């Protein structure tokens, strides 16, 4: 008799634990889906976007809807998986879409030499706002649209810079 | 009132299942069909007809490799096409960053940092790096490990390294 009671006690505990685990798993799944498909916070730092974003680190909100619908255009600040190192995500501004003619100078501080290229099909041309200290399409060429991970729409930190990004 | 609560619980269940399914397919593994004969004889060995979607192979795609982006020669990967992001292609990795690849037009090129050289197993009909050059590793969606359908062809996908195509230094 005691064994039966023991078993039933344990089974109820196990059931409780299982249901709690399920709730946590559901929550984590919800978190992942929100992060991957709706919007996610990102910490960005570095000199490449200087007038727009600070050197020391800003927290931005990026939404992941419009790049799936193909609704990003020139002027948008986007998160792009770096073509040189796929583990890194860089923040740049789209300058040209496919078919656009882009003129750029590789090193604006020393020379005036200007190159002109046409962005190939399915690619975008991305540049940092700080042309002097940015590794972008001027170095590695146009990037495939598929590398775009999200569009930045709002800054949440630091507090004085809170608001939409133009 | 009873039917409404029933509908509500049904919707809730569908939502939960969708959530969990989406997470698993994003982070861990998913199953995708293979269309076309560019990877034959590894996938879709018989010549497919125009409407013959019934004999497509379904393959298991694992996503753990996306955490480190570590790939090896001969892995079969699914990636989005560099010229059209909505199109997914399935090809075999021939060259990794730093390798020298001999293309069929008799020149040798170096695969740049963070890129890879992909080719289909079917040399005749395949849109791959021979036409669009090396692709960024970031475009890769996952690695194909098993064929799950149809049943007679079930099994692992071997990593086959073509001989003499690349030299690493």
TrEMBL record, chain A:
<dbReference type="InterPro" id="IPR019533">
    <property type="entry name" value="Peptidase_S26"/>
</dbReference>
<dbReference type="InterPro" id="IPR019758">
    <property type="entry name" value="Pept_S26A_signal_pept_1_CS"/>
</dbReference>
<dbReference type="InterPro" id="IPR036286">
    <property type="entry name" value="LexA/Signal_pep-like_sf"/>
</dbReference>
<dbReference type="InterPro" id="IPR000223">
    <property type="entry name" value="Pept_S26A_signal_pept_1"/>
</dbReference>
<keyword id="KW-0496">Mitochondrion</keyword>
<dbReference type="InterPro" id="IPR052064">
    <property type="entry name" value="Mito_IMP1_subunit"/>
</dbReference>
<dbReference type="Pfam" id="PF10502">
    <property type="entry name" value="Peptidase_S26"/>
</dbReference>
<feature type="active site">
    <location>
        <position position="48"/>
    </location>
</feature>
<dbReference type="GO" id="GO:0042720">
    <property type="term" value="C:mitochondrial inner membrane peptidase complex"/>
</dbReference>
<dbReference type="GO" id="GO:0004252">
    <property type="term" value="F:serine-type endopeptidase activity"/>
</dbReference>
<keyword id="KW-0378">Hydrolase</keyword>
<dbReference type="GO" id="GO:0006627">
    <property type="term" value="P:protein processing involved in protein targeting to mitochondrion"/>
</dbReference>
<comment type="subunit">
    <text>Heterodimer of 2 subunits, IMP1A/B and IMP12.</text>
</comment>
<protein>
    <recommendedName>
        <fullName>Peptidase S26 domain-containing protein</fullName>
    </recommendedName>
</protein>
<feature type="active site">
    <location>
        <position position="92"/>
    </location>
</feature>
<feature type="domain" description="Peptidase S26">
    <location>
        <begin position="113"/>
        <end position="157"/>
    </location>
</feature>
<comment type="function">
    <text>Catalyzes the removal of transit peptides required for the targeting of proteins from the mitochondrial matrix, across the inner membrane, into the inter-membrane space.</text>
</comment>
<comment type="similarity">
    <text>Belongs to the peptidase S26 family. IMP1 subfamily.</text>
</comment>
<dbReference type="GO" id="GO:0006465">
    <property type="term" value="P:signal peptide processing"/>
</dbReference>
<feature type="domain" description="Peptidase S26">
    <location>
        <begin position="26"/>
        <end position="104"/>
    </location>
</feature>
<keyword id="KW-0999">Mitochondrion inner membrane</keyword>
<keyword id="KW-0472">Membrane</keyword>
UniProtKB/TrEMBL annotation, chain B:
<feature type="active site">
    <location>
        <position position="91"/>
    </location>
</feature>
<keyword id="KW-0472">Membrane</keyword>
<dbReference type="Pfam" id="PF10502">
    <property type="entry name" value="Peptidase_S26"/>
</dbReference>
<dbReference type="GO" id="GO:0004175">
    <property type="term" value="F:endopeptidase activity"/>
</dbReference>
<keyword id="KW-0496">Mitochondrion</keyword>
<keyword id="KW-0999">Mitochondrion inner membrane</keyword>
<dbReference type="GO" id="GO:0006465">
    <property type="term" value="P:signal peptide processing"/>
</dbReference>
<keyword id="KW-0645">Protease</keyword>
<dbReference type="InterPro" id="IPR036286">
    <property type="entry name" value="LexA/Signal_pep-like_sf"/>
</dbReference>
<protein>
    <recommendedName>
        <fullName>Mitochondrial inner membrane protease subunit 2</fullName>
    </recommendedName>
</protein>
<feature type="domain" description="Peptidase S26">
    <location>
        <begin position="8"/>
        <end position="105"/>
    </location>
</feature>
<dbReference type="GO" id="GO:0004252">
    <property type="term" value="F:serine-type endopeptidase activity"/>
</dbReference>
<dbReference type="InterPro" id="IPR037730">
    <property type="entry name" value="IMP2"/>
</dbReference>
<dbReference type="InterPro" id="IPR019533">
    <property type="entry name" value="Peptidase_S26"/>
</dbReference>
<keyword id="KW-1133">Transmembrane helix</keyword>
<dbReference type="GO" id="GO:0006627">
    <property type="term" value="P:protein processing involved in protein targeting to mitochondrion"/>
</dbReference>
<feature type="domain" description="Peptidase S26">
    <location>
        <begin position="110"/>
        <end position="149"/>
    </location>
</feature>
<keyword id="KW-0812">Transmembrane</keyword>
<feature type="active site">
    <location>
        <position position="38"/>
    </location>
</feature>
<dbReference type="InterPro" id="IPR000223">
    <property type="entry name" value="Pept_S26A_signal_pept_1"/>
</dbReference>
<comment type="similarity">
    <text>Belongs to the peptidase S26 family. IMP2 subfamily.</text>
</comment>
<keyword id="KW-0378">Hydrolase</keyword>
């Amino acid at each position: 008799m005691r064994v039966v009671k023991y078993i039933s006690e344990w089974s109820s505990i196990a059931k409780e634990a299982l249901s709690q685990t399920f709730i946590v798993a559901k929550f984590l799944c919800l978190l992942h889906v929100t992060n991957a498909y709706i919007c996610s916070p990102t910490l960005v730092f570095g000199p490449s976007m200087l007038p727009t974003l600070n050197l020391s680190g800003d927290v931005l909100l990026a939404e992941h809807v419009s790049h799936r619908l193909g609704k990003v255009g020139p002027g948008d600040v986007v998160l792009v998986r770096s073509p040189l190192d796929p583990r890194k995500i860089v923040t740049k501004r789209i300058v040209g879409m496919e078919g656009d003619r882009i003129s750029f100078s590789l090193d604006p501080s020393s020379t005036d030499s200007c190159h002109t290229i046409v962005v190939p099909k399915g690619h975008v041309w991305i540049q940092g706002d700080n042309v002097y200290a940015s590794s972008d399409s001027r170095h590695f060429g146009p990037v495939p649209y598929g590398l775009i991970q999200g569009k930045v729409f709002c800054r949440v930190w630091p507090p004085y810079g809170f608001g939409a990004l133009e | 009132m009873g039917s409404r609560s029933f509908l509500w619980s049904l919707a809730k269940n569908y939502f939960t299942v969708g959530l969990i399914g989406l997470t698993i397919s994003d982070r861990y593994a998913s199953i995708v069909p293979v269309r076309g004969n560019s990877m034959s004889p590894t996938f879709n060995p018989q010549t497919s007809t125009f409407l013959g979607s019934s004999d497509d192979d379904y393959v298991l795609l694992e996503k753990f490799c996306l955490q480190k982006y570590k790939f090896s020669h001969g892995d079969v990967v699914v990636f989005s096409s560099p010229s059209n992001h909505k199109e997914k292609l399935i090809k075999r990795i021939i060259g990794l960053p730093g390798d020298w690849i001999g293309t069929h037009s008799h020149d040798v090129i170096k695969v740049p940092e963070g890129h890879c050289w992909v080719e289909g197993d079917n040399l005749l009909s395949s849109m791959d790096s021979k036409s669009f050059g090396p692709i960024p590793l970031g475009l890769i969606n996952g690695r194909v490990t098993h064929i799950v359908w149809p049943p007679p062809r079930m099994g692992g996908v071997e990593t086959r390294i073509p001989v003499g195509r690349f030299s690493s230094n």
